[in-house]
Amino acid sequence: MSVRFEITKNEKGEFHFKLLSGDGKTLLRSEGYNAKTSCTNGVESVRKNAADDKRYDLKTASDGRPYFNLKASNGQVIGTSPMFADAAACEAAVAATKAGAADAPVDDKSCSTMNPATVKPWFTDLQQRIVSRLEAFDGMAFKADGWERPGGGGGLTRVIEDGNFFERGGVNFSHVMGDGMPASATAHRPELAGRRFEAMGVSLVLHPRNPYCPTVHMNVRCFVAIAEGKPPVWWFGGGMDLTPYYPFEEDVRHFHATCKAAVVPFGGEAEYARLKDWCDRYFFLKHRNEPRGVGGLFFDDLGADGKTDYGTAFGLTQSVGNAFLDAYLPIIERRRDTPYGERERDFQAYRRGRYVEFNLVFDRGTLFGLQSGGRTESILMSMPPIVKWRYDWHPEPGSPEARLYDEYLKPRDWA
Fold first, then answer.
1. pLDDT of residue 185
2. Mean pLDDT over residues 165-174, rounded?
């Protein structure tokens, strides 16, 4: 069961945290803290101690109902559970805390506005965590290429080419700012034209060499539009999607199930269905009348309308970014040694052409990067190294290639 932390601020100005189950029930709650840093330290203490059986102190209230305290190594109580109806419910809450607290996202509802300085450390840490795991998987290091943008800001590109497993891939962090919003950012928000902006995020694309291992994309980002005498307008966006060539149903279902688990704590089944459908509609090549792949998640403008608070928007973004490795690594671990030949490589190169078409024609991130004066080499690292186009080609009916079109390139409920 997915769990998440929620930080709130009461009318007295005290900060509290709760650990919530996937269906929103409280597993653990803290005392009140005068300083937010003390509250976030409490969250980290839960992460550190939750997996240790010795840190749980099972108690019984005067009315016979069970509950528990989670303690630090010095014996101090970090958090206390609610009262439970019976011992089985208490034990289930302990198990959920032990299993999920260490990696649980934080939904910070104590903030109403976004400060880029508070989100940047998470983005840079996410990039490093993902690169470290991918380097361990491939066995080859990613090149680090720092860059500065003349108009303001810069970033760090981490790229691998001709690796042991990845034919090409990149994991980028960028933090840019400017005096005027690019056209791609105001196309859906014309009222923001002319505002100064600040944007940052992590974006990755990985192209394995083995055609039985799918290409994958993930992006998480935030944006602030600023104008003198007006409140800033901020929003978050992101998602991930899978592009297989010779798909396995087990892999597609795993990817979607992991995406679903990342979203459900922030809006339940309905929110997951909304973001999955958005992904199916977004990653669609209109001129080909076909999807790019088998989808995943996509969201944008989260918070821009003022209806989603900062904590929820950032919390969902964190949850999606943190879920990427769990969504993708098990798939390529299963398929990395699957034998293939020239036929499979040829079809992979043909389908990669669809990837190129989408990125150069429709992708908002690519268009924003190019229009805002971003670093072209970093923006176009998403392009596959070997691509082919054929005139009016169609797969042979009943072939493994036709199976991709007939069974997978159609929106389905995979999770």
1. 64
2. 96
> Can you tell me the mean pLDDT for 88-115?
85
Retrieve residue 125's tokens. 């840490």
Query: How far apart (Å, rounded) are the C-alpha atoms in residues 195 and 39?
Result: 35
Q: Which of 324, 302, 390 is nearest to 354 (CA)?
A: 390
**Amino acid, single-letter form, for residue 4:** R
Indicate the pairing of strand 4-9 with strand 106-108.
Answer: parallel
pLDDT in tens, 365-377: 787 777 766 677 8
In terms of average pLDDT, the best of 185-199, 210-224, 376-390 is 210-224
pLDDT at residue 112 tops 60? no
Cα–Cα distance for residue pair 325/129, rounded to 1 Å: 9
Phi/psi for 77 (5° steps) reads -75, 125
User: What CA–CA distance (Å, rounded) separates 379 from 368?
Assistant: 10
DSSP letters of 368-403?
HHHHTT--HHHHGGGS-SS----TT--PPTTSHHHH
Full DSSP string of 90-113 = HHHHHHHHHHHGGG--EEETT-SS
Contact 303, 317 (CB under 8 A): no
Other CB atoms closer than 10 Å to residue 403's CB: what's the count?
14
The two three-digit tokens of residue 343, written as one number: 């036929």
Contact status, residue 373 vs residue 149, Cβ threshold 8 Å: yes
Q: Could you tell me how far CA 48 lies from the centroid of its own chain?
A: 23
Q: Which two tokens stand for residue 402?
A: 């036709």
The C-alpha atoms of residue 173 and residue 188 are separated, in whole angstroms, by 24
Whether 1 has a pLDDT exceeding 60, the answer reads no
Model-level pTM? 0.73
217 is an active site residue: yes
Marked catalytic residue, from 207, 217, 254, 256: 217
